[in-house]
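Can you give me the bound-state structure? Components:
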Amino acid sequence: MTIRSKFLVAAVATLMAGVAVPAMAVTLRYANQGDLKSLDPYTVNETTTNAHLGHVYEGLTRRGKDLSIQPSLAERWEISEDGLSWRFFLRKGVKFHNGNPFTADDVIFSAERVRAQGSNFQTRVPTNSEWVKVDDYTVDVKLKSPNPILNSQWDTWYILDKEWAEANNAVSPTPAAATTPSYASLNANGTGPFKIESHQPGVKTVFKANKEWWDKAEHNLDEIVFTPIGSDATRVAALLSGEVDVIEPVPLQDIQRVNSSANAKVLSGPELRTIFLGMDQTRDELLFSNVKGKNPFKDKRVREAFYKAIDIETIKSRVMRGMSTPSALMIAPDLFTYSKDFVRPKYDIEGAKKLLADAGYPNGFEIGMDCPNDRYVNDEAICQAVVSMLARAGVKVNLMAQPKAQYFGKVLKSGNYNTSFYLLGWTPGTFDSHNVLHDIEGCRDNPQSSRGESNLGNFCNKKHDELTDKILVESNKEKRDQMIKEAFQITFDEYGYIPLHQQALAWGVSNKVKLSQRADNSVLLYWATKE
Amino acid sequence: MFAFIIRRALQAIGVLFAVGIISFAMFRFAGDPVNQIVSLDTPAAEREQVRRSLGLDDPVPLQFVHYLAKAAQGDFGVSYQFRQPVADLLAERMPATLELALCATLFATGFGVLMGVYSGLKRDSLLAKVFQTVSLVGISLPTFLIGILLIYLFSVTLGWLPSYGRGDTVKIGWWSTGLLTLSGLKALIMPSITLGLFQMTLIMRIVRAEMLEVLRTDYIKFARARGLTTRAIHFGHALKNTLVPVITIVGLQFGSVIAFAIITETVFQWPGMGLLFVQAVQNVDIPIMAAYLMLVALIFVAINLAVDILYTIVDPRLRTSIRQPA
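Here's the bound-state model for the whole set.
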């Protein structure tokens, strides 16, 4: 090396050192299996998208780490005696990312937009409710009937800036089936702790911390870089090699490996989603069975036999590798006060055989089962286990496992409930039992009503539905919980469904990162700190 | 020559039309897009609304005609997942795929020819046998497995190379390139090897066989008799004559390299067109699937045409036969 080149190297080194001296910006890299589908917060009601947008947008309320409802853009609220009027007091001094102040006009505008044609969040706000601006920071909501859980889903009903939407031709929500690209689906302007710096759908989204956020930040991040990584092996490899700090989900078979690595661990806990089996109890003859002229599932003894033939502990230990919580109810225990009063009937293969014989099937029968293979954790493997367990009771199950795209097309209402026996998962969007009682356990007999639309096997009990209607308008929590318990007891006693378990959340987190896990599987990085 | 190109262009339109029909017929088995667009608890009435606004309740032939009419005007529709025009999405992803395909082809050709020549000339040496074994591995191991093995070796264990993505990119006009940054180049190494390994073994085997063949010919014997150096014989005469089939293979395979990049792109989360296609299949995003299939068909047709034209330049004998069909 000549003297001159030595000098050059030294100069460059000094220069570089000079540049590198300011504290390095803290960047958290996050990879998810799924993608951030649209930046318009009213397009797709889906957990991953809602969680992403929750960094940028805020609702009138928010939910804490334990899912409790907390004030957010509304500081507090009051409910009138008759339960028909709610008054919301808005937070003052909040600014959108573009500098516009947050006022009552924005709330009223968002309430209109969320109910408009094309929004996937129409149920967030009752269609016939009336929104009145009292002053710039007070809003009244007038209801036609009392609704004790009015604001239970408002944590993901995000408030938009009226001025911004009007200026950018984004007054109407971007429909899921948009045929023209919209400004709001590629740009965002919220009040939240992060701003969107750049968004390349399917490739990368960069969030920058909002230094002017109204609340005290719990995170220490300057930047979040989100990349969707669809391939399981690549996602895990990226975590293990330290290229990303947080991944969701970690496949069950990789949990051990992540935990035994030096730079990351798995954060796990029961998820709110309940995985269950449903049976067609409505047709006079099953679509997929060798029993002709009658429907064996109309006989309670057959349903009970199916329930008792399934060894849930084996599914937990073998199929789920311990990562599941067996369930006796159609709702997660965290979401209902009296869930402990329900205990799963014991696995009893002899009892099951006897029940089948009593019902007139001493030699069992054949039945077709529908199962998704890319929707829930180990969904197809659970179904295979169910097939072999029922075989021991003499029932031959013909399993049809298919990708979710085909599965949902077949079993949902649009496919005319084309199934006899199926596996499904459900999280009540409201985190409240009424949703389960109404959507999953309600009778499907009135085609005008949305009741029971996801009750694919049409388990139906009139007393249960009467209770459900009362629960909707009952404001006294104690009375309400008692009625919910009574309704769940009916489904439980009738063996209307076979609840299996809550699957476990599995997030891969680098040892450098501290993060709180919320049971609804929302990855919320505004609670993350990184060394 | 001109008439030849016109004839080929007409054939190309026929091929594209056929691809369009076949892919449209298959989409019905991909599942119901509406279920992928809305959430599970969406009321049925709202689902119907979505279905109508997408024109999905029209009969399939009618949907196809609508699609063709729009595609002919350069409008490939809007993606169901991203709510962006498909043409923009594909244009945004194309540089990534083309750069990857190009690097993979360069890698395959460079190493393939070198290894082929060496094992042709010294076929009993130890190294030649090693090359043969490597080529066997390259041909028999599936692409995704090679990719994952590379990731575990070089990213997780050694920590030398990134396991996913393109690294930093630089924009030149609308083209985003990873060739000008260090992280972009590092990110290219493993995907290129994964994608090019199969072609490399193919080229190596062809070059080796051709070398053995050519070395036995009379003109090589004559060249030796003239007292030319071994070097001149091997590289000036033998290698040159083995390259004609290699050009054909490299050219024709470039199309399949682009098409097969789907798997490599999925493993390395490479933000190219193949990854876009895989995501589209999972989400029943018909506009992207249709446009991608048409585009790949177009690339194949164009490459075939280019190779045909190149032939006539490389091999003068073909020129006359085109002018005066036999």
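A couple of observations. Chain B touches chain A through 55 residues (CB under 8 Å). DSSP finds 13 helices and two strands in chain B.
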